[in-house]
Amino acid sequence: xxxxxxxxxxxxxxxxxxxxxxxxxxxxxxxxxxxxxxxxxxxxxxxxxxxxxxxxxxxxxxxxxxxxxxxxxxxxxxxxxxxxxxxxxxxxxxxxxxxxxxxxxxxxxxxxxxxxxxxxxxxxxxxxxxxxxxxxxxxxxxxxxxxxxxxxxxxxxxxxxxxxxxxxxxxxxx
Length: 174
Fold this sequence. Notes:
The protein is 41% helix and 18% strand. It is α/β, with parallel strands linked by helices. It has one domain: 3-Layer(aba) Sandwich (Collagenase (Catalytic Domain)), CATH 3.40.390. Strands 1, 2, 3, 4 and 5 form a 5-stranded mixed sheet that branches. Helix 4 packs across helix 5 (154-169). The radius of gyration is 16 Å and the shape is globular. The protein starts with a strand and ends in a 5-residue tail after the last helix.
């Protein structure tokens, strides 16, 4: 299945290795989650200042963050897109692209490369691992996962388990 992943950046020096890693992680997360349709995901790689502006405008939080996710639909984590558990499951519309393939517009993610570098140093792992983790984390948000129920909440545990499982499948363990 071919997903369209559109990556843009307002930064210099983002090389093809990182672009390929982003595509690999997004594709792996969609596959591991059993996405049954070709999807479209938009990715913006930016700096702390730009993500702070977006965070303030979209969430009324005036500070930078590592990743923002803007899902197109409200999905139930771990439930196939066309399952009745997903609200308006019968209304998901696939966009027809010029290659003749219909794709589900899943949503957008914004990643701060400043945060990627800082968190990689803070956690003692590579920039590639941090970038891959944030891509997977964001895809899971696009698919309905959340972690706002606190450190010991079941939603956060479910999301962390999926993140680690997908990272392990990619050969990027903690």
